Amino acid sequence: MFIRVKTSKNSPKQSVQIVESYRNEKNQPRQRIVRHLGTAFTEEELKRLKDFAEFEKAKLEAEKTPALFKPEHLAEAAIDARKNIDDKPLRVNLNNLREQARITTGIHEVFGSIYNELGFNNLFDRRKESAGKNLRHITMARLANPVSKRSSVQDLSKDFGINLSLDSVYRMMDNITDDIISKAQNCAHSAAKGLLGEEISLLFYDCTTLYFESFTEDELKKNGYSKDMKFNQPQVVLGLLSTSEGLPVGYEVFPGNQYEGHTLHTVIPKIKEKYNLKRVIFTADSAMLSKANLDYLEKQGVEYIVAARLKSLTDKWKAKVTESNAPLRSFDYGKDTRLIVTYSDKLAKKNKHDRDEAIRKLQEKLEKSSNPKSLISNYGYKKFMRVTGDIDCRIDEEKYAQAANFDGLHGVITNVKDMDDSAVVDHYRQLWLIEECFRISKHDLKIRPIYHWTPKRIKAHILICFIALTCARNLAYRVRLRFEPMSVARIVNALNHVQLSILWDKKTECRYVLPSKINEDARKLYKTVNLSTNTTPYKM
After folding, report:
1. Which end of the chain has the least Cβ crowding within 10 Å, N or C?
2. Where is the Transposase IS4-like domain (predicted)?
3. Where do runs of H (alpha helix) occur along 86-177?
4. Contact 294, 270 (CB under 8 A)
5. For residue 322, which phi and psi values (nearest 5 degrees)?
6. pLDDT tens string 395-420
7. Residue ranges of the chain that CATH labels 3.30.420
8. In 3D, which of 499, 514, 497 has the Cα closest to residue 99?
9. Which residues does 129 contact at the CB level (< 8 Å), separation at least 6?
10. What is the mean pLDDT of residues 18-22?
């Protein structure tokens, strides 16, 4: 078995295939395509496809084809029966048929295949096999429709033919230990390495806050600076690690009053110990920028690319970075470090628009209020407003002009020596991928608000969401390589529409299965994980 790159004569596209050699009945050597992986138009796309091909070839050679996820009861029997479909015509009287159940199977088959392949089905040992099944069921439910655990149990019964008790879900969560959390992160890291076909050297790190539907603090839930503006509610801080392709590899949970810049002292040693990386280029936004943090990274021998707070620089440096609107400039910024400043017309227009729009809205509120000072909070654009007396508010033109000098400018600080300025900036710009992970976690998977109260269940809930995020990003990466980019929402929508109708013949008491029509998105997703899309009706 080998990988073949087929080049088109009159086109720049190159097809990547896994090919197998064999001999025909006359003992003549032949070749057949085992799997077509996709088409590349650039060298970068070709490299990624080759890495993916190596990953797929290794699975095939090890004969580890993922098994179908098997829901219980009717759903399990229906999926099992599909494996033995023959071509004989079904002779039934339609007047005798009644629909007994309609079961959604796309989520379980496609995401279940990814879940098993990544090793999440082996987090619990055999003595707790039922807990392992419950974790898989509840993860699939969160991907399909992220709601409370109680509602997930109801959805599993109603839509997927899976009957769980809420108590069994809570027992499963109580059995999730730090060791299981560590094993899950190892699975995510191994999957990322396998897909990328290389050692991971570039890691992105960011933090967010997750709030609770509660007003009571404990050792983990603490009030702190909330990115969701829920300052009167306790929260936890979640730090997430991702590759440059947006594949999650690990996370840490901190008390809610933890300043995110201080989380590095926990994260960096674990990165070095856990992932055994030969080289780490740590990339983060300006929240991680402080002299103490940079000194700490230097001391740990970690290379970094961190966003610079240009408006917080000394007056001398402010004058340097604002004296020109050149697209790219670089400055020596201390021992072995560079300050790289970029300018973008598009960003400049956005900065001005955002500032003007915020001030306009603030002025509208001030004009309607009898106490203007009460409306100007410590956040936002207070710095641009000057309040005289109780009702006279006007824009501070001098501060407005000072802020306008920075429109379109963005800076990063780095100690990486073997990358040119453009490469450093390009690497930093990929930080949006981890921000997308947070967006998916918060909106598509609804990781918050958190309705659990004990630290153990809070950690279990975050693990479930992390596993779901890893499966979602893993599938999105593969389908982008083979076919086209798809958002997680689009993937879930396509798979939620793949269903089986189980029909009962009231006269013969036989059951038949009628698969739903597969839409084009779902067909691509099934092909991505090498599952059949046979829609032929069959007998159970």
Report:
1. N
2. 206-470
3. 106, 112-117, 129-144, 149-160, 166-174
4. no
5. -100, 0
6. 677 888 888 899 999 999 999 998 89
7. 200-307+418-450
8. 514
9. none
10. 86
